[in-house]
Write a structure and sequence with these properties.
This protein is α/β, with parallel strands linked by helices. It has a single domain (16-172), classed as 3-Layer(aba) Sandwich (Rossmann fold), CATH 3.40.50.620. The chain has helices at 2-11, 28-40, 60-71, 86-92, 105-121, 141-149, 160-169, and strands at residues 16-21, 43-49, 77-82, 97-101, 126-130. A 5-stranded parallel β-sheet has the order 3-2-1-4-5, with helices on both faces. β2, α3 (60-71) and β3 (77-82) form a beta-alpha-beta unit. 29% of the residues are buried. Bound molecules: adenosine-5'-diphosphate. The site of adenosine-5'-diphosphate (ADP) has 16 residues, from α2 and β4.
Amino acid sequence: MKNAKVSSNQSRSPKIAIYPGSFDPITYGHLDIIERAAAVFDKVIVVLAANPRKDTLFSVGERCEMIRETVQDIENVEVTDAVGLMVNFAQQHDAIALIRGLRAISDFEYEFQMALMNRKLAPKVITVFLMPHDKYTYLNSSIVKEVASFGGDISKFVTQGVASRLKEKFSLS
Ligand code: ADP
């Protein structure tokens, strides 16, 4: 009986989740969500959703590089970019879950709509909402860019690498 249980555990397919977003740039709030997801799933694929209609400060390449640098110590996390519907990406990569971060009630309505739409499109892909540590609930990429653009201290919100790229962008170095 004991042996049977072990062998069924060994043969189960890895539980893969995707974490899509624009990450313009990645913040400690995103990292918090990635760490939580990586603790629950066997593999987490951070997917930079390259939306050509969205104006971003950093290019796809720059954003991917910053994500890679930020998650380099987490073993079961991969980083890639993709265009198109994220549920399609999930299905193509055998992911069972799509991770989203929920900071506050203000995130809820949009995220709820997205989750229901995604469920209609791909009923087997489960949206999983994770809450960050409360010290990150006010944090988003836009506010970090705004503070950085005025030369404010962003060291509590992003890694050193990301902070210096922001400084460069705003020519403050
Ligand atoms: P989007 O452009 O779709 O808002 P983002 O790249 O900003 O995507 O974020 C991707 C995901 O990460 C979203 O689910 C968003 O709610 C979540 N997220 C962003 N910042 C934080 C944070 N500080 N704490 C928790 N989740 C966050």
